[in-house]
Design a protein that fits this description.
The chain is of the alpha+beta class. It is about 30% helix and about 30% strand. The protein has one domain: SH3 type barrels (Roll).
Amino acid sequence: MSIAYAALNPTANILDRAETFETATVSLDRLRVGAHARVLAVKGEGAVARRLMEMGVVPGAPVRVVKCAPLGDPLEVRVRNYHLALRRSEAQTISVVLES
């Protein structure tokens, strides 16, 4: 992949890294508190997936798990410099790539 293409298409770069490091690709609900990642894909269908993407959960967006409720649901995540509460079932539909 050329450098110019990678600069113009950051999603392709993330996809290449995800294919190279398959163990680093997980669903958002599997991340620990404080873990930094980038969104790879939203796999859900229908209104929920569309609404997540409208709120900024799109491929390439940085995401960090801020905290988790005492019983494990919901999760508080930080996406594009704002906080978002997600049900664990919604977070399972979001694939992410861990960042080091």
